[in-house]
Design goal:
Low-confidence stretches: none
Number of helices: 2
CATH superfamily: Nucleic acid-binding proteins
Organism: Chryseobacterium pennipullorum
Keywords: Membrane, Transmembrane, Transmembrane helix
Protein name: 6-phosphogluconate dehydrogenase
Number of strands: 5
Strand content: over 45%
CATH architecture: Beta Barrel
Shape: elongated
Length: about 120
């Protein structure tokens, strides 16, 4: 009886661990987004995180022939990358990011975490 209880508890803890890893630490996707840096700021009540927004231009489902803007909100882990973004607001950036299935409060407010500046114009 005790042995089966310990095995069941172990299986539950293992499944919980796999779920937490998949939800918060598994990199679901990664890529590069380009656009004008709208803002870069440090914010938060308990965990101060670095947040930013890129404005991407392109043709969308607006009126025929009009340009529609798309927004890409992201978080930044590295303070050095944040400094580079903060001092160059308004410029065009190519940012490499990782997409997670969930956001952690100390990692940022979004599922997208920028880990590298590929290009800046």
């Amino acid at each position: 009886m005790k042995k089966s209880l310990w095995i069941a508890l172990g299986v539950v803890l293992l499944l919980l661990g796999v779920f937490v890893w998949y939800k918060y630490f598994f990199v679901f996707g990664e890529g590069v987004k380009s656009g004008y840096l709208n803002y870069a700021m440090k914010k938060g009540y308990v965990f101060k995180t670095y947040e930013g927004k890129l404005i991407q231009e392109g043709f969308g489902k607006g009126k025929t022939g009009t340009i529609t803007s798309y927004e890409f909100e992201f978080s930044v882990d590295d303070p050095e990358i944040f400094k580079q973004l903060e001092t160059n607001s308004g410029k065009t950036f190519d940012l490499h990011y990782k997409e997670y299935n969930g956001a952690l409060p100390w990692r940022g407010n979004t599922k997208f975490v920028v880990d590298k500046v590929v290009n800046m114009k």
